[in-house]
Amino acid sequence: MFKIIKWLLIGLFVVVLLATGLVYGVLNLSLPALDGRGKSDAIAQSVKIERDTLGQAVIHAENRLDAAYALGFAHGQDRFFQMDLLRRNAAGELSELFGKAAIGLDKKMRFHQLRKRSQIAVAQLPAKDKALLKAYANGVNEGHAQVGYDSFEYLLTGAEAKPWQSEDSLLIIFSMYLDLQSTTFQRDKALIEIEDLYGKEMVDFITQPSLYQAALDNSQLAPYDGGIPNLKDAQWAMTEIADRKELGSNNWAVTGQLTETGSAMLSDDMHLSFAVPIIWYRAQLNYPLNGEMQQITGVSLPGAPAIVVGTNNKIAWGFTNGYLDTADWVALESKEKTWQIDEPILLNDGNSENYALTMSEYGPVKEINGKPYALSWVAHHEYAVDMELLKLEQANSVDDALALAAEVGIPVQNLMVVDDKGNAAWKNMGAVPARKVPHQLAVSEQAYPAAWHDNETQRPFVKNPESGRLWTGNSRVVSAEDDQRFGNGGYAMGARSAQIRDRLFEKQQFNEHDFYDLQHDNEARFLTAWHKLLVKQLSAAGDKYALYLKELNNWQACACSDSIGYTLVKRYRSEVINGLFSPLENKLKALDSSLKPVKRDLEPAVWQLIEEQPQAWLNPEYANWQQQMVGAFDRVITKLTEQYGNNPHSWEWGKVNELVIEHPFAKQIPALKSLLNMPTAPGFGDTFMPSVQGRSFGASQRFIVQPGHLDKAIMAIPGGQSGHPLSEFYRAGFNDYVSNGLTPLLPQEIAHSITIDAVN
Question: How is the quaternary structure described (predicted)?
Fold first, then answer.
């Protein structure tokens, strides 16, 4: 019997080895060749594509069109499947890969008809931009074809890798609209529903101005002076209100008067969801223009031919999401002005499912509380996407960059730009509707302005402020007066921006290390008031909370990896919000909606409730507000115990907020986790502080630069260049990122080189 078991185990071991060998053999077939020489009839002159030790693509070309081809070639080799997912997601075509499991998401995306809009936009582009997109697409397709075998993702799905088209690059821009601005119209929709349920008094109450405001002119919005509305037919069943990720970013700058070199200095870290591969791709473009050599270094977005954030050594630029109000819901008086169109959604088995979409002259139509509303969103208009961002590459000064701001077709961003002469400036760059009055509630057909069809050209900006300091962090940047014109499209509450501002005023001179320290600032200033409240509540509740009070007294006032107290305070705030606003959430859930898009607005309203303690907002389960507040903490302990066990050491913030960056397929095939995922790392940082980090969310890059002094510039990214798990560049740079290493922006030692000659 023992011998039989022995041979069975040996046989099983051999099978596992063979299976592992087969997997690695198949994967090896799809590794791109990073060295050698080839030919192409898609370029005018030879190009060279080098990779340094991090896998950064260093492009050498004789003109910008050939540089676009070469960047596309590198993207096609390293990131084609990622690019395919982005275009399919924006177009609502994921069902071709994943079948009926993706139908719901595809219908959600087809509502916006972004494939059709991309086709129309390409047709309207200037000839030079069409040529550039075509050159890039040729590069993508030839780079992908060079690999020889489709990547393992296509083998697993059984899907076909379709060629890249010019319109797909515009879909990549639209994918960023969906990521960065969907909350704007979702927020308005939730507020319309709340007005229907509770009246405008409730809308005003939950959207009162933040206690934390950090506009560049330090202006304050008028404080809310209304009362607390009564709840109607309160349903007190405890409900968890989902958190909305802080999609946005930090950036700040100082003028040359605050640096040793006299050059201005920029910091930029864009906050996005993490996955493998990470969204950005390091690249440097080298090509001549008008007899002068251009060198642009930064990060590109695979699928688009531009350096999104970077420097040409004369200027440097970075972005944070602007969160201006770029959407309105139009209340339709009747269905006579609407019509239906059919959107067939192809499945991976060759069949299709039809999606009937209602349209109107204002935009696609959705029912809200049983009434028809049309969505007018900036992404639906002709000025939403273009190729003007590429002009930043040739800007020689801050003024050159500011002049481009209104021409660039991207989701509106806070452009922060500096130059080698010491200038620094901020301005909103991207598409902004010219309508003068934004609405967070529905607008009538009669009040819908024709100016919605035009891009706003007049925008506020700040250049070289007297203090020499500029900052943004997704909260209101414009003055209180300009806020009435541009509106709130889902601003962050401002705690993060205020902390950055205050840190900048603590020093009189800065270098790259100072900025890097600020990017990693995890002091819990925002939660200090919540910490004080929790300690007060537990101290009054008796000795049963002594263990937790000890941890709260040692909480370190930071989102530090070993802090248990920080976890308790963070979770307590969430439970208080859940408890107080469950009646609203339950009503909205019945409408297939949620408070999630407005949760970040609730902070001032929560504190007003805590201070005034109205009887109507007391859950009948509790005898008084003291019990209700302590009850929220009891729920925190129950949930932490269920999730992490009853040992408080397992509640340390670094474990609760552990950084987990996963490949999309690892979730469906757990056996591949060790091969596909990045290593886990202890959590460091959180939401309302400069060092933003969640379990699979945070600073997707950390960029610090002084134009003219790029030898000290930093670009840290939480993942590698290649999407291929056997590539030497799959995880390159990740360890530097999690250990706070100063990863250089400029290419390091060249490890690989491809030359592609033109076929004339």
Answer: Heterodimer of an alpha subunit and a beta subunit processed from the same precursor.
Distance CA 535, CA 172 (A): 48
Comparing C-alpha atoms, which of 338, 355, 329 is closest to residue 186?
329
C-alpha to C-alpha distance for 128 and 416, rounded to whole angstroms: 27
Q: Which position has the token pair 């801050």?
A: 398
Is the distance from CB of 704 to CB of 287 less than 8 angstroms? no
* CA gap 552, 557 in Å, rounded: 9
Could you tell me which of 93, 152, 164 has the C-alpha nearest to residue 353? 93
Quick check: 429 and 417 in contact, CB under 8 A? no
What the block records as the tokens of 62 is 């004789």
pLDDT in tens, 591-625: 999 999 999 999 999 999 999 999 999 999 999 99
Strands 693-694 and 697-699: antiparallel
Q: SS3 helix, strand, coil % of the chain, rounded to 5?
A: 40, 20, 40
Tens of pLDDT, residue by residue over 101-146, are 999 999 999 999 999 999 999 999 999 999 999 999 999 999 999 9
pLDDT digits over 654-713, tens only? 999 999 999 999 888 888 899 999 999 999 899 999 999 999 999 999 999 999 999 999
How many beta carbons lie within 10 A of that of residue 344, not counting itself?
11
Separation CA 599–CA 580 (nearest Å): 12
pLDDT in tens, 523-550: 999 999 999 999 999 999 989 999 999 9
**Environment class of residue 710 by beta-carbon count within 10 Å: exposed (0-12), middle (13-18) or buried (19+)?**
middle
Distance CA 369, CA 331 (A): 12
With tokens 């080839």, the residue in question is 38
Q: How far apart are CA 187 and CA 457, in angstroms?
A: 26
The 3-class SS string of 215-267 reads: CCCCCCCCCCCCCCCCCCCCCCCCCCCCCCCCCEEEEEEECHHHECCCCCEEE
Looking at the DSSP bridge assignments, the partners of residue 523 are: 558
